Automatic annotation (TrEMBL):
Region (Disordered): 267-286
Coiled coil region boundaries: none
Source organism of this protein record: Terriglobus roseus
UniProt-listed InterPro entries: IrrE_HExxH, Rad_response_metalloprotease
Domain IrrE N-terminal-like: 67-164
Origin organism lineage: Bacteria, Pseudomonadati, Acidobacteriota, Terriglobia, Terriglobales
Name this polypeptide is given: IrrE N-terminal-like domain-containing protein
One Pfam family recorded for the sequence: Peptidase_M78
Compositional bias annotation for Basic and acidic residues: 274-283
Length: 301
């Protein structure tokens, strides 16, 4: 059975919610901060790319969050992230070592730092509690429809909601965030991750040509004006897998300059030991190729 690498953050957030007797959506991180006498203040002067800051003077803490972002959900997540640094074991000692009085956090869910990723996981679990989120999710159709509805219910951003949705979904779902036709990150649902023979998307990989996401990204106005499109692609296009059709739903994230893609299917084909490819190779042979080589050899004439 797969073990969630962020289970400690999930457990910590669940404990905080239980102590405060919070059992409904939406969750208010500002109220949670107030219970610990943590002052939250918006600042427009934070540098670009910085979402928030946790400050400490003795035993007194404060949170500053950037006013650059218009999304209320983004501000909520930023405060939740900083609360993660406050509540998670070892974070305060690590972040404020050597007499430091402030710790800044970068925006965008793309940090590779363990402490930042733990704080992200805490914020997601705090603001979109697993039990409440999953129960609500079951009421909506698979895909972007669920993400949009849940984002409204939880008062969260589409990006943070999509990540949580993919991680908790029992359906074959994957979420991809991209910018300038490059993958920033991807999240796959447990059933997707368990499926054999897929090449997982890596940060910096190109968005596959010929997919709705690639076509969408060719026009900057699609992103700036938060347009959306629906289309179809396949496991072969995105994950170098079998030719199984995927529903591909794409939306531009406006001033953030990014593209959010939700890939889904009602079911996955039964995996085979060696899946035939258009280039005549088998899965076993393809395992020895770099992802870029696999894509090139799969799509060339």
């Amino acid at each position: 059975m797969e073990v969630d690498p962020w289970w400690k953050a999930e457990a910590c957030a669940t404990e905080v919610l239980g102590q405060l007797k919070i059992a409904s959506l939406p969750v208010d991180p500002f109220r949670i901060a107030a219970t610990k006498d943590i002052l939250c203040e918006e600042k427009t002067s934070l540098e670009e790319g910085i979402s928030g800051c946790l400050m400490r003077v003795g035993d007194v803490f404060g949170i500053i969050y950037s006013g650059r972002f218009q999304s209320h959900g983004y501000r909520k997540f930023t405060v939740g992230h900083e609360l993660g640094h406050y509540f998670l074991e070892g974070h305060v000692d690590h972040l404020f070592r050597d007499g430091k009085s402030a710790h800044v956090s970068a925006s965008g869910f793309v940090s590779d730092d363990r402490y930042e990723r733990e704080a992200d996981a805490f914020a997601a679990a705090l603001l979109m509690p697993k039990e409440l989120f999953s129960k609500a999710s079951s009421q909506f159709r698979i895909g972007m429809n669920s993400v949009v509805a849940l984002a409204s219910l939880c008062e969260m951003s589409l990006t943070s909601t999509a990540i949580r949705y993919a991680r908790l979904s029992r359906d074959p779902v994957a979420v991809v965030l991209s910018a300038e036709q490059r993958v920033l990150f991807s999240v796959m649902s447990p059933v997707f991750r368990a499926y054999r023979g897929l090449t997982w998307l890596k940060k910096g990989m190109g968005v596959p040509q010929g997919t709705p996401t690639f076509s969408f990204g060719l026009d900057a106005m699609n992103i700036a004006q938060a347009r959306s499109i629906d289309g179809v692609s396949s496991l072969a296009d995105w994950f170098d897998g079998p030719d199984c059709e995927l529903t591909e739903e794409v939306i531009g994230l406006g001033s953030y300059g990014r593209v959010l893609t939700v890939l889904s299917t009602e079911s996955l084909p039964e995996p085979e030991e060696n899946v035939s490819r258009s280039d005549g190779r088998t899965d076993d042979e393809a395992e020895y190729l770099l992802p870029s080589e696999r894509f090139f050899r799969k799509t060339r004439p």
